[in-house]
Amino acid sequence: MPALTRRRSTDAREECWHIYYGDVHAGTIAIRSGNPHDEDPWEWHCGIYPGSHPGEHQSGTAATFDQARSDFEAAWEVFLANRTQADFRAWRDQRDWTARKYEMWTTGEKLPSQKPSSMMRCPCGEMFDSHCLENTLIHVPHIPAEHKSREVRRAQTVQ
After folding, report:
1. Is the pTM of this model over 0.85?
2. Contact at 8 Å (CB) between 122 and 114?
3. Are 25 and 97 members of one domain?
4. What is the extent of the structural domain holding 153?
5. What is the pLDDT of residue 158?
């Protein structure tokens, strides 16, 4: 089981530490900015997403960094007890996809959803190439029938 490690954030104006569980960003401990002087200056956030439900995340404030670290570690033990390897895999998959997406944007490459395609899904469920006339003619009757059934459902819902 990996140990928790922390790395200083290089892009935060205030003191900020990112907490890692192996290669997974598990949370943050940072100095709060803009809070009154009689409030706790440190805050911590514990949890990963995806890989958990937002309500499972924990956070709090502390008077010192050491107290914030101790509180974070206690919250992490509870959080970790409810995690599976699939939860961490979901987080890693999202991290990898996000990195790939930004790499594509940087190089000017389009995302798959941004590339034009003549492929369509008919209301009957079949995928077809709308630029192929014989395929289109087969599915044309399905489209108005689906629109009509949606109108009927919408009218029944309003009544």
Report:
1. no
2. no
3. yes
4. 116-158
5. 66
